Amino acid sequence: MEMNEDSQVVSLQECRRFITECMIAVGVPECHANAQSDLLVEADYRGHYSHGMNRLDHYVKDVQTEWTDKLAVPKVLAETPATAWVDGQNGLGAIVGNFCMGIAIKKAKNVGVGWVCARGANHYGIAGIYAMQAARFGLIGMSFTNTCPITNSTRSKKPAIGVNPLAFAASSSNDSFVLDMSTSTVAVGKIEMKKRKQEKLPEGWALDHEGNITDDPKVACEAQHLLPLGGTELNGGYKGFGLGVMVEMLTGILAGSNYADRIPPYNLFSKDRPRDLGQCFIAVDPKCFAPGFEDRLDDLLDSIRNLDPSNPEKPVIVAGDPEREHMAEVNRIGGIRFCKDQLESCSKLAASLKVAPLKFK
C-alpha cells in the first residue's frame, strides 16, 4: 500500500465531491451517489487504490449504458428470523451491499446471527467495507461476492471462476482484525494499477493468452487469466482455487444468481444480459458464545504483533495493520496522492461529464 509520492494531494472531502458529482451527472440519485462515493473513497483511504477512484469510470459507464439500474432499490424475496434472500434488482453495488448487511446486522442483534444472500447484484467495491459495518456494532462481519470468470482453475487453460473476494472483520474497544482478500493471487484491479504506473507484474500474478505466466500488465489485462491464491499447483494454488469455489457456493449457488462461467465477461454483459452477481453477508454476535471475546481478541492480536520479526525493520503485522498505517499517512498529509495516469483519467472524465475537475490542496 504505497502512497504515490510524485503527485499532488487531493483531500478526502474533494474526492467525495468529485465522485458524487460524476455519478449525479449520469442521473444517479444523490443518496445513491453519496453511497457510491463513500465506498470508493474508503477504498483509497485504506490504500486499496484498485477499488477506489480507479473504479469510478467503470461505474459511470455501467450507468450510462444501462448495464446497471441507477434507480434500483433491493427487495427481500424471503426471510426467517436469521436469514434473508434479496433481489438486488441490478442496482448499484453500494446500494445492494449496504441494504443486505444492514439486514444481517439487525438479525444478528435480534437472534445472534444474520445471514443474507443476494442475487441481481453488481460490483460492490472492497468486500471489507461491509464486514466492517458489522464490526462497528460489536459483531463479527463477513462478506463475499462472485465476479466475472477470470481465475484459472488448477490444471486448466481457461478461467473458471472470478477473483471471488472474501472479508472478515472483528473488533474490540481497542483493536480490530480486518481481512479483505481475493481468492486469486491478486485482484484484477491491482494489475490495472500496475498498468497505470507502467510497472511489471511480480511473477505468479497472471497468465497470458496461452496460459504462460506473464509480467506484462497490458497482456494480463487483455488475457484476463489470473492464478488462484497460491499460484501454481506445486505452490498450493489448488487451495486458493478451493477457497474461490467455496465463495462461489456461498454467493451464486446459494443466492440463485449467475455463477462461474454463467457470469458474462465484462465486455459482453448488457442491459438485457446483466452481471447478476451473487453476494453473501453474515453478521454474528460473539456475545452468544463464551464471555470475554474482546479480551481474547486483543490478546491474540498482541501476541502475534509481539513476535520477533525476521527483519527488524519490518514489524510483525496482522490483517488491517497496513490499512491503518495508510490511513494515518493520509491524515498526516491531508489527503490522497493518486498516480499521474489516474489523475489524467479523472480530468478526462470531468470534461466528458461537465463537472468541476479535482482540486488539489
TrEMBL record:
Keyword Oxidoreductase: yes
Any matching Pfam family: Ldh_2
Keywords noted in UniProt: Oxidoreductase
Matches recorded under InterPro entries: Mal/L-sulf/L-lact_DH-like_ah (IPR043144), Mal/L-sulf/L-lact_DH-like_NADP (IPR043143), Mal/L-sulfo/L-lacto_DH-like_sf (IPR036111), Malate/L-lactate_DH-like (IPR003767)
Gene Ontology molecular function: oxidoreductase activity
Family under the similarity heading: Belongs to the LDH2/MDH2 oxidoreductase family.
The name this protein goes by in its record: Malate dehydrogenase
Organism for this UniProt entry: Photinus pyralis (Common eastern firefly)
